[in-house]
Each structure stands twice: as C-alpha cells, then as structure tokens.
Sequence to fold (235 residues):
Amino acid sequence: MRVMYVYHSCFLVETEKSYYLFDYFQGKLPPLRPEKPIVVLASHSHHDHYNPGVFSMLQKMGMLQILPVLSSDIPPETRPAELPCRVVSPGEGCRLPQGQVLTAYRSTDLGVAFLIQDGDDWFYHAGDLNDWVWEGEPEEDNRRMTQAYRQEIDRLAQDLQGKTLSAAFVVLDPRQEEHYHRGLLYFLQHVPCQKVYPMHNWEHPEIIRRFLSEYPQYRSRIAAAEENTIQEDCL
Fold:
C-alpha cells in the first residue's frame, strides 16, 4: 500500500487493486496508471473537502474507471452527472466493485468518515470527524462534542475486530489552540494503526512537530512528521 499527501485533507492511497483519492480540494496529483480504477471519496460538502472539478481533471489525465463515493450531504447538482455515484450516509456500508468494503461513520461536523477494507489493508479517513472543542464555547456543548467523537472512534475500534489499520488520516487543527491535540490523542490511544497522518493543518505543519514534542511516545506511529508532504510506503 502506498500513500501520498496531496493538500490539506487530501491523500492518494494506492493498493494492488485501486487508487483512492480522499477529499480532493486542490493540489497536483502524480502520474497515474489510466487503466487502474480510482475511487474518489468526498466526506462532505465543505469547499476544503470537495471540489467537483476533480472528476473532469481525472478524465483529462486519461483515467478510465472513476467511481465517485460521496457523502449524502453533497448536493445532487454538484455530483458528476456522467459518472455513476455511490452516495453514503452515516452508519451505512457498501461493497465496491472489486470487493472492497466501505463503512461510513457519523461526523461531528458534517458528512461522514470512511473506513475501507481492501484485501489485507484497512485504512481510515476522518473527514471532519474530530473532537471540535473550542475555547469560549459553552462547557456543556464541548462535553457533548467530546462524547460524540469518542463514541464514533470507539465504534471504529470495535468494528476493526482486532485488526490493525495500515493508515489513518486524522484531524490535527491548529485553530483549536490548546485543544488541538484532543481528537488525535484519543485516536492514538484507542485505535491500533501502523501509521497515522495528521491532516487539516491549514498549511501549518509545525503543529505536528508540537504534538510530537508533547507526546514523543507516538513518534513511531506519526507519518511524515516534518512536513507531511512525502510519499511513503505502508507495510
């Protein structure tokens, strides 16, 4: 399995069967094999997670098999009319054309998070599922947020049934200030994963270095810690 960071919350994953492009917003893609299927996943309709122009871009690149998998909150008029789409809601699952299994989790913001099983590889993309605790918000609201986030992560860990994720793409947002670490830390403590890719950094990769300076015990599990822009193999 091969992983490449593209931009913001967008990652390209390549397995033996397929490419998976998560939450394309902008950025340059590497050369792709046109005959290999590509699953284009969008976790929700926010502009920094879904750019409907991605489908024409991939067609211009010569990709022959493009499967959009879109959260149900994405308006029908922005879905590609020329391509058959899979539309998923929180709590739903589906089987993809080559036998891969997809499960959608409820976001604590909008849309869904994705878990995919492709052969022996399991990988997870959070979308905007995060412990969005903010300074100045009512304490009760923040408590409900934390409860909702942990409920979904606990469900993810349970659904893995002892399996270990090959890769996970998890929010680490500097705008949360002193609460920036909450979602990622809980994930690391409760979900077995070989490599975790912090994302949604808003062009501030130094937040990853801050996290590692405060929680050095997770250094071996955090991928591309310096800039989060390198290409890397996940075993």
Q: What stands out?
A: The mean pLDDT is 94. The chain has one domain: 2-233. The domain at 2-233 is CATH 3.60.15.10 (Metallo-beta-lactamase; Chain A).
